[in-house]
Amino acid sequence: MAAITNDHIQIQPKFRPVATLLSLALLPLSGFATDVYVPSLPGMAAALQVSSLQVQFTITLFLVSYGLSQLFIGSILDSYGRYRIGVASLLLFALASITIAVTHSIMVIYLMRIIQGITIGAAIAGKRAYFVDVFTGDRLKHYLSLFSIIWSTGPIIAPFVGGWLQTLFGWEANFYLLAIVGAVFALLELLFSGETLPQAAPFRLKQVVQVYGTMLRTGPFILGITLLGLAYSMVMVYNMTGAFIIEHHLQLSVVTAGYCSLVLGAAWMVGGFISKAMIRQSFFRKLSVNTGLQLLFAVLMLAAVRITDNLYILVAFAFLIHVGAGFTFNNYMTFCLTRFPGNAGVASGLTGGLTFMIVSALSYGIVQVLPAQDGVHLGESYLLLILLSMLVMFLAFREETTERRRMALS
């Protein structure tokens, strides 16, 4: 099957800076689409007359579909381009958001969240590939090191906005906002963006399978993706439980829950900035120190919350742990996306897809075992994820060392 050419919709040189800004601005949309209604989860459960686990499952469905879509979209992006698929995805995302806002059926919401995950997965995978298409060398590393920093603006802004929307207009307002955001981005893409795929590769299933096989057999790449999933799971476990702990257990307001999510979103950004500042430091050493500090903070958090059930203690230790998670994520996102520059779409899709499959499985599994009860359960969730991260990081370091020795001998 021949690939479709996109010569007539190439980005005009005068619009290239605007197209780059648009690509960066779209990166936080996946986090924004989840976190904007995190403060509304208890309100949604009450309005829809369903359990807390049922509304938490809307997040899991988004993450699963977001991850699955990226697993398969990469080869399509490398064959048929990024532009048309991205614009169509944003429009479908907007329609799904409106549907969620006007329905009060949890089953319809489940279906629309799946559609949102698929469409955002396609749009974001294309935008990550955009930078590998357009930039090289230090310039490319500069932009890739900004990914988690810029992505974190979603978790920072979204819960704050969502908390106020919930208070003023109800949970539906969050999804009307998502519809507007999707439609506006689609319009801007039509006006200023275009195709960046350097050369479309014909879609041949055998070759596609070989590319996927090569990547999946590359130990450091897969272990790096696993660490991305573990890092973001720390954030997602809080997103799924924090509002219930603050609003139900601590008896505080939805706006307070929104402010706390804003603070923890800022923590992820701080971790990204620290990672960018240390970009030339020893990769393995800085990550080992970072994970060791996370372990210390998790142990201290568990000791503190057992003594006193206090919002400030809860958020302070969570902040420090999320800084470490952002640091790990930034380092390994750059590592994974630059591993296979010749197949940027597939690498981007696999990185994003597998990461969010890991996140969806881990976060929902942990919430089932350690439900949104109190700070002790949250601290235990962090500790479990950090210990798993230490194990995977050890395996990743050993695999990378083995691979370097093998290359040196050959």
TrEMBL record:
It is found in: Membrane. It is a multi-pass membrane protein. GO terms for cellular component: plasma membrane. The keyword Transmembrane applies. Pfam families: MFS_1. The keyword Ribosomal protein does not apply. GO terms for molecular function: sodium:proton antiporter activity. PANTHER family: MAJOR FACILITATOR SUPERFAMILY, POLYAMINE TRANSPORTER 2-RELATED. This is Putative MFS family arabinose efflux permease. It comes from Chitinophaga japonensis (Flexibacter japonensis).
